[in-house]
Design a protein that fits this description.
Elements: H1 3-27, E1 42-44, E2 61-63, E3 66-68, E4 72-74, H2 82-98, E5 101-103, H3 108-112, E6 130-136, H4 146-156, E7 160-165, H5 167-172, H6 183-193, E8 198-202, H7 209-218, E9 222-224, H8 233-240, H9 244-252, H10 260-270, E10 275-278, H11 285-293, E11 298-301, H12 303-309, H13 313-332, H14 339-342, E12 348-350
Helix pairs in contact: 1-8, 2-13, 7-10, 8-9, 11-13, 12-13
């Protein structure tokens, strides 16, 4: 097979995979089985005398050089296919209106096929937001290097780069890239050479304390734990399975991973000085409040916003406004006038 035919085959495979994953995420139940975020195990001790004014509760926070109006990140989700263009535009418009952060989906499709660039580009509708570029870390073992990382950042005008870790997904995905050997040193090279911060993110199985420590030593600027309890990529891949064998294997791992609540605490212990984003099953403002009280600096949301983006930018704004108001009220009812007071709150207890 000629090189041009191989390139065309790669482009088609990338596109088909993205289309299937998007359809499944929008239309199937892909939550993990017999595992939760762990956030439901915690409860705030209500303060009947909060001694603060609800109207003066301040949700703003600095994150990677910009100030967010609330500690919320629209997590990396889509890109590389035509359907992603509208979804990313709707997500970005919401982030711009509300002053939040956003990540684009994996830009591997762009690196392999630059024609897909418009499906990721959102700066025309969101010139001011904190924007994250995104590549799979394992691609650093498959020919990618600092140049590809730089291209991903420059193509979308990003403020930082997310390198995502997804060993379980790659192991279950047909033709997945499963050589993670020596990957830490390559991540370190990117951290040292790239002119923007590098964040390492899991995709739904969480970050353990020892992994967080290794990443901090390698020079990453932040960690997104993406713990278990929300979308399970083993479930997504189960729905994509072409054979009963593959489906059964994927189903075995539906309860795999570190819960979001536990991973927040593990990552904070392993990397106490790093910016920490909590994602994985975050569904409302009370979840966000608990995540920050457990040690996170911000929280990321995905599936609820993806489904809203499939309707309109206004739908995304509506969902996020609910989350922001829920967070504000939770802070008010524990007497936290700002996020610094919420983090490590003595009023978050195990049930």
């Amino acid at each position: 097979m000629s090189e041009s035919m191989l390139n065309m085959s790669t482009k088609q495979a990338n596109g088909k995979r993205k289309e299937e994953q998007l359809y499944i995420s929008l239309h199937q139940c892909v939550n993990g089985k017999e595992i939760s975020t762990g956030l439901e195990a915690y409860q705030f001790v209500h303060q009947a005398l909060p001694e603060i004014n609800l109207a003066e509760v301040n949700l703003s926070t600095p994150l990677f050089g910009k100030t967010l109006s609330a500690p919320l990140v629209i997590s990396s989700m889509v890109g590389g296919i035509e359907a992603a263009r509208r979804l990313n535009q709707n997500l970005a418009q919401a982030a711009q209106v509300l002053g939040l952060a956003m990540g684009v989906g994996s830009q591997r499709c762009f690196i392999d096929n630059p024609e897909t660039a418009p499906t990721y580009q959102v700066r025309q509708v969101a010139p001011d937001i904190l924007l994250f570029a995104n590549l799979g870390a394992v691609q650093l073992n498959n020919g990618y290097g600092v140049d590809e990382c730089r291209r991903a950042v420059e193509m979308v005008g990003a403020d930082a780069l997310i390198l995502h870790l997804n060993p379980l997904q790659e192991a279950l995905q047909p033709g997945g890239n499963t050589n993670f050997a020596g990957l830490l040193s390559r991540i370190e090279q990117v951290c040292r050479a790239l002119p923007v911060p590098v964040i390492v993110k899991e995709v739904g199985c969480g970050i353990a304390e020892n992994v967080a420590r290794k990443l901090a030593d390698a020079g990453v600027s932040g960690i997104d734990v993406a713990g278990a309890g929300g979308t399970s990529w083993s479930e997504v891949e189960r729905h994509r399975s072409a054979t009963e064998l593959d489906s059964n294997i994927a189903a075995t791992f539906a309860s795999w991973g570190i819960s979001t609540a536990e991973s927040i605490q593990m990552a904070r212990r392993g990397a106490p000085g790093l910016t920490l984003i909590a994602s994985g099953g975050i569904r409302n403002g009370l979840d966000v409040a608990k995540a920050i009280a457990l040690g996170a600096d911000a929280a990321g949301m995905a599936i609820p916003l993806l489904k809203a983006a499939n309707i309109s930018a206004e739908s995304v704004i509506g969902v996020l406004r609910e989350v922001i108001e829920e967070l504000r009220i939770a802070m008010f009812c524990v007497g936290a006038s700002n996020l610094k007071e919420l983090k490590g709150s003595p009023f978050l207890k195990r049930k």
